[in-house]
Design brief:
The complex is a heterodimer of chains A (114) and B (112). Chain A is mainly beta and 114 residues long. Chain A has strands spanning 4-7, 10-13, 19-25, 32-38, 45-51, 57-58, 67-73, 76-81, 90-97, 104-105, 109-113. Chain B has 112 residues and is mostly beta strands. In chain B, 0% of the residues lie in helices and 54% in strands. Chain B starts with a strand and ends with a strand. The mean pLDDT of chain B is 92. Classes of the chains: A mainly beta (114), B mainly beta (112). The interface between A and B is medium-sized, with 23 and 25 residues.
Amino acid sequence: GAVVSQHPSRVICKSGTSVKIECRSLDFQATTMFWYRQFPKKSLMLMATSNEGSKATYEQGVEKDKFLINHASLTLSTLTVTSAHPEDSSFYICSATTDSYEQYFGPGTRLTVT
Amino acid sequence: SQKIEQNSEALNIQEGKTATLTCNYTNYSPAYLQWYRQDPGRGPVFLLLIRENEKEKRKERLKVTFDTTLKQSLFHITASQPADSATYLCALEADSWGKFQFGAGTQVVVTP
């Protein structure tokens, strides 16, 4: 149980285009989903906290107009990187949680912007 | 926010030995602390959670301790196996419910 999927696993896009990443909890309903990005050999950096039906809460320094988060249901959250630039290239990971304090992570999405 | 320190140098250990990893933090003591395993190119996998009123927690070959006086958690892998090779992250409850701050992780390499 507690499986979280992400799609796509890898994406290459051209500078200036937008990319959507989906995060789904497959066998449970997630009260909260989190979006992280991770650089090589660095810690996970929390970008935003997403609750179903409400606006996402962004961490300081994260541009909400650049990283659009939509939490449409208790099993789906999407992150859209708008007008992507090469510096947005990173590993993006979502996690989902219920009330148990455990976070269940997706497998991650490798974004490369050329 | 916290400053979380995990040893950045890889821990190389022989199969069968015990691997011990440290997680030190600088500010407030969190209500609970977690340990995760992360394999290259994959998302972290939850291993153990320990609360501030618990000194020790065990799960199979894993053991975690939590010392709020020292502001430190130790993570032990006993009878280590090559399959235990991965990066291990500690995560501390941040300032809001369910929100965590992660350390950079320590890589463990278990050789046969």
